[in-house]
Amino acid sequence: MARVPAGVVAAGGLVGGYSVARWTGKRPLGGVALAVAGGVAARQWGGKVGVPKAAALTGLYVAAFGGSHPLAKKIGAWPSVFAVAGGMALASWVVESRA
User: Fold this and answer.
1) Which residues cross the membrane (predicted)?
2) Could you tell me if 9 and 40 are in contact, meaning their C-beta atoms sit under 8 angstroms apart?
3) Distance of CA 23 to the CA centre of its chain
4) How many structural domains comprise the chain?
5) Residue 69: which domain range?
6) pLDDT above 90 (res 49)
7) Rg over CA atoms, the chain
8) Model pTM?
């Protein structure tokens, strides 16, 4: 069975976490979605690129989440979420393609 690429999981976690929080009105529930996707992606990264690079990508995932907030004030919430999700997917693809 083919796995969903870790970069897609991470991007989906950023978009999905925001979506859940926004549509349910419960930010902690969005945080759960974000954390679960981040954990799945981190595990996949660890198996493919090793622990140090997986830790760096996981740190980037957390930074993307944090960075989306100030970016949203400049360009809007959804554009910000999509921008950081795209950046995360690209970063993951670059690191994984060099493994």
Assistant:
1) 75-95
2) yes
3) 19
4) 1
5) 6-97
6) yes
7) 13
8) 0.93
